[in-house]
Amino acid sequence: MIKLIVGLGNPGAEYEATRHNAGFWLVDQLARMGGVTLRVEGRFHGLAARARLWDQEIWLLKPSTFMNRSGLSVVSLARFYKILPDEIAVAHDEMDLPSGTVKLKRGGGAGGHNGLKDISAHLTTQDYWRLRIGVGHPRNSAGGGGEREDVINFVLKPPRREEQQAIDEAIDRSIAPLGLLAKGESERAMLELHTNR
């Protein structure tokens, strides 16, 4: 069962619409669904709220540290409320998936994602859930060369209109499977998410 859903992103208006903030977008949607407002929680280094979603009490968290320091926020809230790593789902942007694709998995490496690296280091385990929201890759975009500099610039820029629409639809599609995951029905959640296109 899931007790904490974390959305990864960078704080500040200049990053709000960028691909790197796809995790924030998902948590904002869940907050709207739950009728809650995320509030600054200094002790958790982020914006947090407890919401009633899918008949469960679930914490929502958007770290206000920058992406590569996300673990501090996650571990602070998880320790305070005695939430175990396998009761945490982290929503994040995923360049290895095209825009409009969303995948759910438990454990595994960080795949070069600095937010996941820091969370794994702080939790001292990789055994938590990840909701991977595809944002595409610069090598697959017009004019993208796939170099490291391109990658950094790519995630820190807003998606094109059609990409944004595809990402929004993927987030919408992930809500019901997340509800199944929250209730402990992980296999059903993955089946529903990965077979419904």
From TrEMBL:
Q: Where is this site: Discriminates between blocked and unblocked aminoacyl-tRNA?
A: N10
Per the Swiss-Prot or TrEMBL record, the active site comprises H20
Binding-site positions, tRNA? Y15, F66, N68, N114
Main localization category: cytoplasm
Subcellular location(s) per record: Cytoplasm
Regarding protein family, the annotation reads: Belongs to the PTH family.
Full protein name? Peptidyl-tRNA hydrolase
- Which species does this protein come from? Cupriavidus basilensis
